[in-house]
Amino acid sequence: MRHHLWPEKISLYLSKIWFLWIICLVLNSITFLFIHFKVRPSGRTVALHYNVLVGVQWYGPGANLYLIPAVGLAICIVNYTLYKALKSNDNFLSYLTVFISVCVQSILLLAVLFLARVD
Questions:
Q1: What is the domain count for the chain?
Q2: Ramachandran region of residue 43, left (φ > 0), alpha (ψ -120 to 50) or beta?
Q3: N or C: which end of the chain has fewer CB within 10 A?
Q4: Per the domain annotation, does 27 fall within a domain?
Q5: Residue 62 and residue 84: Cα distance in Å, rounded?
């Protein structure tokens, strides 16, 4: 009998992954706030792309740094709509959208942290 409970527990746990969406929004907010308070890109030219071999490749207006959390939020919204559409089928892809969203938000936060170190 216990053998049949195992998939049900996993299914119940995965159906309550709303906290991962909250983590996505928190990471996106941290990225935005880090840009706003630590980098302070208002009106100055900042490094937008850094390459280890070459160094800074692109400079541009600091307001362009706000595109990083904006793109992250757009990806999160698209993945959430995919999650809602695929959730009814109990498809593994619905859970994968949440995982990808958390990974994307983490990578974008790291990118902003590394760009802040360049300045």
A1: 1
A2: left
A3: N
A4: yes
A5: 35
Instruction: Give the largest CA-CA distance in the chain.
Output: 66
Q: Which tokens belong to 90?
A: 């109990």
Separation CA 20–CA 95 (nearest Å): 10
The b-or-e profile of 47-74 (16+ CB within 10 A means b, else e) is bbebeeeeeeeeeeebeebeebbeebbe
Whether the per-residue pLDDT at 11 is higher than 70: the answer is no
pLDDT in tens, 38-85: 877 666 776 666 666 766 666 777 777 888 899 999 999 999 999 888
pTM of the complete model: 0.76
Q: Which amino acid is at 75?
A: I
Domain that holds residue 22: 17-118
Q: Does a structural domain hold residue 89?
A: yes
- Mean pLDDT taken over the chain: 81
Could you tell me if residue 10 is inside a domain? no
DSSP 47-85: EEEEETTTEEEEEEEGGGGGHHHHHHHHHHHHHHHHHHH
Instruction: Find the length of the chain.
Output: 119
